[in-house]
Amino acid sequence: MTRDLSDVRFLTVAEVADMMRVSTMTVYRMVHAGELPAIRFGRSFRIPESAVVTAIETPIAEVG
Question: What is the domain extent for residue 45?
Fold first, then answer.
């Protein structure tokens, strides 16, 4: 299974927090809980932008 990673955009935790309008700690919790996939580089995490878009577009619960 080979994938071309040249078109994948990775975001920092701070960038994801800004996009989702949450704190960086919330993003770290989501990563550690497995709700948001991430790759670890040294002591920092990088999250694929496509995963963030999917997380934002996925409804959590129906209201009503």
Answer: 7-57
Q: What is the pLDDT of residues 30-63, one digit of tens each?
A: 999 999 999 999 999 999 999 999 988 887 765 5
Identity of the residue numbered 8: V
Total tally of structural domains belonging to the chain = 1
- Residues found in the chain: 64
Q: Angle 9-57-43 (CA atoms, 0-180°, nearest 5)?
A: 40
This prediction's pTM: 0.79
The sign of the torsion formed by the CA atoms of 36, 13, 22, 55 equals: negative
User: In a 3-state reduction of DSSP, which class is residue 22?
Assistant: coil
Q: What is the CATH number of the domain that holds 14?
A: 1.10.10
